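Before a colleague's protein record goes any further, I have to sign it off. My question to you is simply how this chain folds and whether the tokens agree. I do not need a full report, just your reasoning and any doubts. This is what I was given:
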Amino acid sequence: MSDLTQVPFGVSVYQLSSMQLAFAGQADAVVDSALNAGFRGIDTSSFYRLSDSETPTGLQWVRDALTRHPNAQVTLKVGLVWVDGVPLLDATASALRDEIHMALDVLGGPVHTLLLHALDPSVPVDQSLSALMDARSQGLATQVGVCNVPPSLVEQVTALPVDVLQYRLSWFDRQALRAGLAEQLVESPCQFSGFDAASATPTGWRSDTDPDLIRLSFEHDCTPRQAALAWAAAQCTGPYVICPQSSADIEDLVQAERLRGVSWPDRKSTRLNSSHCVHL
């Protein structure tokens, strides 16, 4: 197998932590299969947990995985918390500092990337990000960034020393691309990272019935799902993160990696447009 340590793919425990896979031991198996395949990036949050649990299972699974794979690069998302069973966005600097230290205590040490789950409209951007940048200056993270920054605030956010912006992105969810966010970051040192928030099974089913993906799969000797993953990764300058539910999803990533260098449809179009291609 080729060296995948530089592949722009990562995996998230988001879907794993919302399902009952823990009881069958499948969550650890999925995480291990990704790291064993060479995908070093793993995404987690204290918000990711089983629906009836007070325990941050998403953090614990990653902590356990780090004992077996110490070279994994962890992305920790902060700012979204559970309060009495209800999700709450709290991006005040003091709350973020407390959450960061709690999460790092569970994980057992610093992380590669700290991401703010979303901007809190009630808190100035620079105040929220000050907590993340303080953590970076203290050696608790290598990179900091924000998820789903509205187009109107991209310029303000990228004027600050942030390293990555992450957006929901898939073959079926191109809102960030159509808003021109990737183009806004062309002249910026910020990475454009994608996150496929859809669960693997429904996304796979949609891929298998999409006529353009079916055509691409025949052209490139892959499955429609693998073509969709490779296309999405080609839009990013930073990692493209998926939410696997089984080890079979990791095999899809391995096959998508071999499609690097392939020309893909225009990033904004809905249908194929061979005159506008991008490259991974």
Remarks:
- Residues 248 and 268 are 29 Å apart (CA to CA).
- The two ends are 19 Å apart (CA to CA).
- The mean pLDDT is 81.
